[in-house]
């Protein structure tokens, strides 16, 4: 959508955090629920 339809901001939900770099090299912002949850859990454990 970003390149074909010139959408200025595209957000991709990814399930495999290892693929984040691939999406970012394509100019897409990628979020991973797995990574977000892991960070929240880590923050809660080390409060």
Roughly how much helix do the residues carry, as a percent range? 40-55%
Unreliable runs, pLDDT <50, ≥5 residues? none
Alpha carbon gyration radius:
14 Å
Total domains = 1
User: So what's the overall shape?
Assistant: elongated
Structural class: alpha+beta
Q: For the report, how would you describe the main beta sheet?
A: 2 strands, parallel
Strand order, biggest sheet?
1-2
Q: How are helices and strands ordered from N to C? A: EHEH
Distance between the termini: 41 Å
Please identify the oligomeric state. single chain
Number of extended strands: 2
The proportion of strand residues reads: 5-15%
Tally of DSSP helical segments: 2
Q: Determine the mean pLDDT.
A: 91
Walk me through what this model shows.
The protein is of the alpha+beta class and 47 residues long. It has one domain. It has 2 helices and 2 strands, in the order βαβα. The protein has helices at residues 20-25, 33-45; strands spanning 11-13, 29-31. A two-stranded parallel ribbon has the order 1-2.
């Amino acid at each position: 959508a970003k390149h074909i339809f010139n959408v200025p901001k595209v957000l991709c939900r990814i399930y495999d955090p290892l693929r984040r770099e691939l999406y970012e090299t394509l100019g897409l912002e990628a979020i991973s629920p797995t990574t977000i949850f892991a960070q929240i859990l880590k923050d809660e454990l080390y409060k």
